[in-house]
Each structure stands twice: as structure tokens, then as C-alpha cells.
Design a protein that fits this description.
This protein has 122 residues and is α+β, with helices and mostly antiparallel strands. 45% of the residues lie in helices and 40% in strands. The radius of gyration is 18 Å and the shape is flat. It starts with a strand and ends with a helix. The model has no long low-confidence stretch (mean pLDDT 91).
Length: 122
Amino acid sequence: MTHQYELMVIFNPEIDERQVPTHLDKFLKVITDAAGTLEKVDIWGRRRLAYEIQKKNEGIYAVVDFTATSESTQELDRQLKLSELVLRTKILRAEEAIAQVAAEKERSEAKAARKATAGAKA
């Protein structure tokens, strides 16, 4: 059974940004070989990290939306974690990601409503 996933990868900033698509394709071959599909590959480029990872302040971000089986997704995650080119990875099922975004939006709306009522009382 296939599911939709979102993958975020932070590559080591010491590699050339032009090589990122090539390195990413090597990892994503696991998905395509297992009859998965790649919907969207978005390379954000070099960004400052929120905190230091392996004594690095920057990383090269890439986000990939794909459809695959859980087995091929686990293999992709394993290979990414073994690579020295990758600082961090996160794979989410799209349903979970959508639920997280909705929950965060709900929290921020509730916070805005509380601020508005507190401002009206003052």
C-alpha cells in the first residue's frame, strides 16, 4: 500500500549546491526502483540553521513530495542517515503533515483571539 510522504533533507554546506540534485537523485532512486513516484522536488538552497549541527551554521535544504510504500520509505531513511553528506532528515506522511499545519493554524488563531479579548478589556 502506498502513501504520500514529504521528505526534508539538510545537506552538508561544504558540498557544491550544483551537486545537490545529483546526490538527491541517488537517494530517491530507492523510491523510483520500488515503483514509487516523485511528485515534487524543491531545492531551497543554502540557509542558516536554527542551531548548530555538527559544528555547522548553514545547510542546503531540499524538500521532496513522493508516493511510496512504507518499506521503501524506511530504506530511503536508512540510506540518508548513513550518508556523511546529510546533516538531518525528516520524513512525514502527508496526512500527518497536513494535520500538524491545521493544528498550528488553530493554535495561532486561538492565541490571536485571546490577545484581542485581552486588548478589549484593557
